[in-house]
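Section 5.1 Outputs to date
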Amino acid sequence: MAVMIQPEGASTSPIAARSTESAGDSTSTEVRSAAHRREAPWLILAGGGTGGHLFPGLAVADLLRAARPEYEIAVFGTTRPIDREVVLPRGHALVPQTVRAFPRRPWQWPGFFLAWRSSLAAAREHFERRRPVAVLGLGGYAAAPPVIVASEMGVPTALFNPDAVPGRANRRLARCVRQVFVQWPVTAEAFAGSGAIVHVTGCPVRPRVLSARREEGCATFRLDPGRPILLVTGASQGARSINLACLELVQFLKATSEWQILHVTGPADLETVRSGYSAAGLDARIMAFTEAMPEALAAADLVIARAGASTLAELTARGIASILLPYPYDRHQHQRANARVLERAGAAVVIDDAGDPRANATSLRAHLERLMSSCADRAVMAAASRGLGRPDAGERIAALLLAAADNAPRAD
């Protein structure tokens, strides 16, 4: 079965303690610890593999831990490195599941079904040894085994869907849960026939996104708070289309000398962008990645970005005008649907990524010329963005989960 990985300094899990007992070791301390852990309320976050799945859930976990320090939280995630990197440092246990997305190629189906059955069995064994008080699915394929098993056991279940249009996995999982949390009202219609109660909560963001101040952001990146700032970002991995389009615009950006440029390129294009800006004599703050994205957002007057659900939640929580280039290669076009929500509200302008740097640059320049020259236009968009934001999303989801957990049957 999938092994539970404890954060550094945590006591041994009940299943690990039982395994050590059977090996004949002296485990009196571990068994006592296991008995204590069985008594503590145990809440599960199910999902992982990407920051878009993990970060909203971990924001809720922080609020749950603050409200109920006695709660223990475990993440049933994936084997991808990001799960270990972001879950364990926050003090939560991690169960890496072998489940994967359903493959298109028929010869890969046997491996998929083997991993699926293994992940279901692992969730069942964990939950039979220690019954959770609630399970929150964070979306995607990794959410499915724990949510399905919990539903079969009568454990309170909920599903978080941040995208405007739910994917296939979430549409199916909604039939197994009692509550669905969505970011925007338009999404509620997609779950109307699921039987679940649908709450329009918004998408949780990190507390620092809300609390960071412009002065702090400018100090972090050595920017002048008295001059406007353009933030360019493609999220943690970067967006080559955006990076190359900006390289086509270096002379235009240089001519807008009042503006300061903060460009988060992702690791693949860092040197390309740095060299291109340097050759043009464009002074900009350029980095592959930053942990200080809340400070970057606090400093920004205008943002060029993709349209991932978490990115848009942060933009609207802060109330920032944006130019969005949705990721074009997803067959379900989730980012495009997300971006249209902001566009319809007047909170963003949307450019369909043409896959050609010059074409994208032409479209970008038309919008940049208007927005960089008109503080009034940016202010109107920022107000519309703020109107879409739900900075209390994490608190609402945590409260609804705790209400469900308080009424959950306890293990004997």
